[in-house]
Amino acid sequence: MSEFLTTRELAALLRVKERKIYDLAARGRIPVRRVTGKLLFPRREIEAWLGAETAAAADDGEAPAAVEAARPLIVVGGHDPLLEWALRESRSGIAAFLDGALDGLARAEAGACVAVGLHIPEPDGWNAATVAGRFGEAPWVLLEWARRQRGLLFRSDLKRHPAGLRDVRGLRFQGRQPEAASELVLDRLLADARMTRADLTPVAGVERSETDLAMAVASGRAEVGLGIASAARQLNLEFVPLIEERFDLMVWRRAYFELPFQQFVAFCRAPAFAARARTLGGYDVSGFGTVHFNGR
Question: What is the pTM of this model?
Answer without folding.
Answer: 0.80
